[in-house]
Amino acid sequence: MRTLAKVCQGTSEQPWFVLNAMKGLTQYKPQLKGISQIYRFQAGVSSDTTFAIPDGCIDIMFDCTETTPSAKICGSTLRAQNAKLKSGHEYLGVRFTPGALPRYLNISAKELISQRLNLFDLAHDRDHLLEKLITNQNFNHQVQIILKHLAREEFSKPSHKTQVALNAINECSGNIQINELETITGISKRTLQRLFREELGISPKEFSRIIRCQSAVNQINQLSEVTFIELAHNLGFSDQPHFMREFKNLVSSTPFAYQRKILESSYASRIQQVS
User: What residue stretches are annotated with the HTH araC/xylS-type domain (predicted)?
Assistant: First the structure.
């Protein structure tokens, strides 16, 4: 039974960023191809337990603190991973859609999996961008600087067949088998795996696993009451213990503990959408 709300690829926020931010997270979703969202938050005192969970996307994160500014390019993780944020620092992030990446970085998605690299080691002539962001601390101004910078850049993007598979995985909340993807795309399992590895750095199975986890997280984020047995069944898990183990591995929390944090924090009120 596939009745869960669909996960729009790359549009979900990192929940631990929201939960552990000083004053919540501000988010803007532009109409620019290849960019999922631009967001900003101030890391809270729990920065040492702020995790990045798998989302299949690549982010550029700017530390806009004037004393020690930096810029990192962060690949998707395969399990919950400490984001290595500094308490009190102001972070501005740009999240790309799955398979999208500015070509000037000259690096593959596969090389970025679970990595945090210095942006300016890959793009030596882009340090002026960080300088502009630091001198314009207003979020709306920073958004315009980012958009102007990226609007003239070329992006790598998924091939047509890969995008068809991505859409199908998203449509089914990650609860889909590789043989179904073969039928939908009209290409073999081997070819599909090669395309995913080349364009996203992960296999179709790994991406489906990520979307399935994102679907579970989104359900808990959005609903005050969630029955975990039903959620596990809807997402295609063999049983509830399997779902619990998978959730703990990818989110670094049990579903029960995570749900408690969401309810106690009034999660939705900590996200400010701007247009």
Answer: 140-261
- How many C-beta atoms surround the C-beta of residue 180 within 10 A? 14
State the greatest distance between any 2 C-alpha atoms of the chain, in Å, as a whole number: 54
Q: List Cβ neighbours of 149 (8 Å cut-off, separation of 6 or more).
A: 129
Contact (Cβ atoms closer than 8 angstroms) between residue 141 and residue 40 = no
* Single-letter residue type at 165: A
Q: Are strands 51-52 and 81-82 parallel, antiparallel or unpaired?
A: antiparallel
DSSP 15: H
Q: Map residue 51 onto helix, strand or coil.
A: strand
- Please, how many CA atoms are within 13 Å of residue 23, restricted to the half-sphere of its CB? 10
In 3D, which of 180, 142, 166 has the Cα closest to residue 55? Answer: 166
54 burial type by CB count under 10 A (0-12 exposed, 13-18 middle, 19+ buried): buried
Q: For 149, what's the count of Cα atoms within 13 Å in the CB-facing half-sphere? A: 19
Residue 226: CA count within 13 A, CB half-sphere:
24
Phi, psi for residue 240 in degrees, rounded to 5? -65, -40
pLDDT digits (tens, 9 = 90+) for 161-208: 999 999 999 999 999 999 999 999 999 999 999 999 999 999 999 999
- DSSP-derived pairing of the beta strands 81-82 and 101-102: unpaired
Contacting residues for 244 by C-beta, under 8 A, at least 6 apart: 228, 254, 255
